[in-house]
Design brief:
Layout lengths: L3 H7 E6 L4 E6 L15 E5 L3 E7 L4 H7 L9 E4 L16
Parallel strand pairs: 1-5
Antiparallel strand pairs: 1-2, 2-4, 3-4
Length: about 100
């Protein structure tokens, strides 16, 4: 059973650049994070079986945050890029 604490532990933090931010969620710890993904989100493979889904700040991240009664400020920055973030070069989330 997924609990709010499980989701809190799965959220790694925000990845930001000057134009956007993405909430990084460890999909191995909370597979439900994939439910929130859309075309503005990205995937990052981490190791053999690990995946991080990066939920865009204006589209999918609020749905996860609101659904579990979190605020955006409940999570700190994981990374900040002064220029365009490496996130933009990752594969886009595509729910099939």
């Amino acid at each position: 059973m997924t609990t709010k604490e499980t989701v809190r532990e799965a959220v790694l933090g925000w990845v930001r650049d000057p134009g956007h931010a993405w909430l990084a969620v460890d999909a191995a710890k909370y597979s439900g994070a994939t439910v929130y993904g859309d075309n503005y989100c990205y995937w990052l493979k981490t190791g053999r079986a690990g995946w991080v889904v990066l939920l865009e700040e204006d589209s999918c991240a609020p749905a996860l945050l609101n659904g579990w009664d979190f605020n955006a400020d409940d999570f700190g920055d994981l990374a900040y890029y002064d220029d365009e973030s490496v996130v933009r070069s990752l594969p886009r989330f595509n729910r099939q």
